[in-house]
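Re: Re: ligand-bound prediction request (bumping)

Still looking for help on this. To restate: I need the protein modeled with 2-OXO-4-methylpentanoic acid bound, output as structure tokens. Inputs repeated here so nobody has to scroll up.
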Amino acid sequence: MVARPVLHPSSVVCTMIKFVRSSYMPQCGLFQLVSRSFFTSQPASTLQSAYEAASDSDRNDDEYANVNWDELGFRFMPTDYMYSMKCSLGDEFSQGKLNRYGNIELSPSAGVLNYGQGLFEGLKAHRSKGCDLLLFRPEENARRMQIGAERLCMPSPSVDQFVHAVKQTVLANKRWVPPPGKGSLYVRPLLLGSGTVLGLAPAPEYVFLVYAAPVGNYFKEGLSPINLLVEEESHRATPGGTGGVKTIANYAPVLKAQIQAKKKGFTDVLFLDSVNNKYLEEVSSCNIFLLKDGVISTPLTHGTILEGITRASIIEIARDLGYQVEERLVSVEDVIDADEVFCTGTAVVVAPVNSITYKGQRYHYNVGAAAVSTMLYNSLTSIQMGLVEDKKGWTVHIE
Ligand code: COI
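Reply:
Sorry for the wait, this slipped through. Here it is.
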């Protein structure tokens, strides 16, 4: 494969990249000479340096990486390239580039290591049946990172820079994007306070990184319904805190409850609000919905619950399908009484809940082919995988 940038003469505002390659595409069933173009608004110099790095002599041009695609779980697997871009406090990000995937160097005194000044994002690239690479609403991840960065006093990439970085990372790691229907390439953007601090203050320097790994189902149950335990002692977030943004610091505190629940055979933990210990917040890695008498409800996000992009998409899809969807305070009694419960998230997609255990009592829910959650899962993933027309303009074609 030859992937070589051909720079448009005007080169600064509008850069055209043209890929010409000859390869066997099993899903398309033929050898093809593919010639595709796309435009970006990135300065030519940024793109050029990115591609220079990506054109290393050790570049592997196989159509697919040597992976057993049928056994993908949600585990880290190093891929070929990662994207990085730096910025000083008070400046703007510029000059990002692709490098071979590898370890990064950080001072022990880096802000992220000492005071947790860090954010992450998660989004997926799917390979469609026509072998296009599709991203799902990447601008929403970019905006969410900007909101989080504002909360943690960090500079953030622009939406265009973020999306550009994600596209470059996926393209450079294309051979790691699973075949259609076998999974996705999970893309993990990070924004880290990399500069040194000793007293508590924003770091003087920041790094924006994007790496990726091929993934399958998030839960070990695969697509089978999961079993949740309501956590009654610890809480994930507090009013005025950072539960609503995707800071790295929101995740380690759930591990203790999660590990204890897993030891008892549960899949994951459902957190309640920290004031009343009564209203549902979210599961460690995803948002939660319930269905009762044909009405769908999900906890209102009011600063303590992550504004999930899958959550927002499912609300919209369900409303389009004619369901009433309420964003409101949802009590633990409401969920006990529900007909169906399901979780949503980028990694999780739409996961049906088989049971919730609260105060030692296990409550069961409707699951299976006829469940509303199954229909929502199918509707969402059909868009994400390019199986149906994307009337909402949610998918971004990389090629
Ligand atoms: C995602 O769903 O992308 C997340 O970031 C959750 C993470 C715990 C895997």
